[in-house]
User: Which sequence fits this backbone?
């Protein structure tokens, strides 16, 4: 089940405190591209800052954990007032280990929030972090991404992965 997320939702703003309680999570590691912004975009996802305020008021720690270079991630981290780890090398577990250590939290009480099965989901599972998989904000145009997205559809079908319904 290395490719199956613990929870599947459409957008980051769909994550509610009750979902985190259900998963036993008090810390969220946030991906950048197609999670808090569009792929290579510069604007924050709609409603993100309000959602972050709700999460933080509920005692949830937030940190950015991205495979992107620090130069890409830092402007988002600065704008949101969050700590970050760039070049996290997902799906390898090292970035998750560093993130949990830096945040002073246990991995079993943390979740990665991202849009890709083969980086975010696999990396979270390999490192003992829960996984909240989101629908990409917009589909990427590069051929390598189109191939990965097609493979993800196969994984969704095999593992019967669907958006969470109350």
Assistant:
């Amino acid at each position: 089940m290395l490719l199956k997320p613990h929870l599947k939702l459409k957008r980051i703003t769909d994550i509610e405190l009750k979902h985190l309680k259900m998963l036993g999570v008090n810390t969220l590691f946030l991906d950048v591209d197609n999670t808090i912004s569009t792929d290579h975009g510069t604007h924050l996802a709609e409603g993100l800052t309000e959602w972050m305020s709700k999460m933080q008021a509920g005692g949830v720690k937030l940190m950015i954990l991205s495979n992107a270079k620090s130069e890409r991630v830092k402007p988002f981290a600065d704008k949101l007032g969050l700590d970050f780890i760039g070049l996290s090398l997902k799906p390898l577990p090292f970035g998750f280990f560093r993130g949990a250590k830096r945040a002073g939290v246990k991995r079993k009480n943390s979740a990665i929030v991202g849009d890709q099965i083969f980086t975010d989901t696999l990396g979270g599972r390999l490192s003992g972090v829960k996984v909240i998989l989101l629908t990409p904000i917009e589909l990427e145009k590069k051929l390598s991404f189109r191939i990965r997205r097609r493979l993800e559809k196969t994984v969704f079908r095999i593992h019967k992965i669907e958006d969470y319904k109350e």
The radius of gyration is 14 Å.
